[in-house]
Design goal:
CATH topology of the largest domain in chain A: Helix Hairpins
Distance between the termini of chain A: 95 Å
Number of domains of chain A: 3
Shape of chain B: elongated
Mean pLDDT of chain B: 85
Strand order of the largest sheet of chain A: 6-7-13-10
Strand order of the largest sheet of chain B: 1-2
Mean pLDDT of chain A: 81
Structural class of chain A: alpha+beta
Oligomer: heterodimer
Structural class of chain B: mainly alpha
Shape of chain A: elongated
């Protein structure tokens, strides 16, 4: 029990009776052990405040205490037992474990364990044992660029405790995928193993490439003459440039497949799908214009057949 | 060795409590004393519970109905804590692998 009832209530020696009453009520409300069953310190705070209040609320006793005629301990209440000391004990009769019904599919699990059907726990069961627990998992997020995710990379991240962690980005990592780093999470309790670090990786979009599963998609602009005559043109892949053969007479929207130029996952590797797009020359010279005027007279074709109603 | 308290003894021990209020708590079924020879017999747990109800009325300025409601919520908390404690004990007794799996499942992603 505190020797200083003023300190127990957190008021000054010059506090008014009203301030004392308020301070006591505040502690009684916030520290009532039965309303804070998980707070081990609540009972001590509550009892000290109650004893202090008993002393200080009486102006006569307060004056005698202030003059040093009585001490704080003389005014203690008879030892009180709180309800929570009984509430979970073997003789507890009031607590209820009804109300698992709303747990849906799992309600059966709980009623089996704790409902009417549950058998009483044998006396002298576990309890008081030291808790041995695995540490918590730590969660991180990491943003990598498109090519790092496609080709694999190692990225260094700094943990909150300033330690550095190398995260290996596996080849073909997908956006939103989580990498688990065993034992890099919170420390274990009571000799338990450490938790894991879970790194959720977001993949930034790329200007020219998109990904669909293990395939890489891209669009390749070609000239009018390349479309007509065909030939080899350079196209980007995630590994660098390669020569792609454009067939004669290719149209915009035609998809060419580059086998094995996609994303590797395990032993398999996806393809790269190149969609052609014909780009007209920046200026139409008179020669080209004349040629097409002549050409149109004898080679008219209708690509809109079936498109127009 | 459980002590039994009579109605008068309970009123004497719980400061501020009146017989009327005690009977109201019993009538509302918030305290369920046993009956012996036609008289109410309060166990220690009943006494502590009456003290809690009285604290709620005095310190929190609750009326008797509100105090009874709070105590019924406290009962549910104790039920849940008991259930949680047993689950915790059961999990603690499990093989580390099982515990790791349960922890992983419970930890929010």
């Amino acid at each position: 029990m505190s020797d200083d009832p003023y300190a127990a209530l957190g008021v000054s020696k010059t506090a008014t009776q009203e301030e004392i009453r308020k301070a006591y009520k505040k502690i009684a409300k916030t520290s009532h052990p039965d309303l804070n069953p998980g707070d081990a310190g609540a009972a001590a705070r509550f009892k000290a405040a109650a004893a202090a209040n008993d002393l200080l609320k009486d102006p006569d006793k307060r004056a005698r205490f202030d003059r040093g005629e009585i001490d704080a301990s003389g005014q203690e209440r008879p030892e009180r037992k709180f309800y929570r000391e009984y509430a979970e004990g073997p003789e507890a009769t009031y607590h209820t474990s009804r109300g698992f019904e709303d747990f849906g599919d799992f309600s059966d699990v709980f009623s089996d364990l704790f409902g009417q059907r549950a058998r009483a726990r044998p006396a002298g069961g576990p309890g008081g044992e030291t808790l041995r627990m695995r540490g918590q998992d730590a969660h991180y997020t990491l943003s990598v660029d498109f090519l790092e995710a496609a080709r694999g990379a190692t990225r260094r991240i700094t943990m909150p405790d300033a330690s550095v962690l190398d995260v290996k980005i596996p080849e073909g990592l997908a956006d939103g995928q989580t990498i688990r780093l065993r034992g890099k999470g919170g420390p274990g309790y009571g000799g338990g193993p450490a938790g894991d670090a879970l790194v959720t990786v977001t993949v930034a979009p790329h200007d020219s490439f998109r990904r669909e599963g293990d395939d890489i998609l891209c669009e390749l602009p070609i000239t009018l003459d390349e479309a007509v005559l065909g030939g080899k043109v350079e196209t980007p892949t995630i590994d660098g440039r390669v020569a792609l053969t454009i067939p004669k007479g290719a149209s915009t929207g035609r998809v060419l497949r580059l086998r094995g130029k996609g994303v590797r996952r395990g032993t398999a590797r996806g393809d790269q799908l190149v969609t052609l797009r014909i780009v007209a020359p920046p200026t139409i010279d008179p020669g080209l214009e004349t040629f097409f005027e002549e050409w149109r007279k004898t080679h008219a074709y209708d690509p809109r057949k079936g498109v127009l109603p | 060795m459980t002590r039994i308290f009579s109605e008068t003894e309970v009123v004497a021990r719980v400061r501020g409590l009146t017989v009327t209020r005690l009977r109201a708590f019993v009538a509302a079924d918030c305290v369920r004393p046993a009956e012996a020879e036609g008289r109410l017999a309060f166990a220690e747990a009943d006494l502590a519970r009456v003290q809690l109800l009285e604290d709620l009325v005095e310190d929190f300025d609750l009326d008797e109905d509100a105090a009874a409601m709070v105590v019924s919520l406290v009962d549910q908390i104790h039920g849940l804590r008991r259930a949680l404690r047993r689950i915790g004990e059961a999990v603690a007794d499990e093989h580390p692998e099982v515990r790791a799996r349960i922890t992983a499942r419970i930890t929010p992603r």
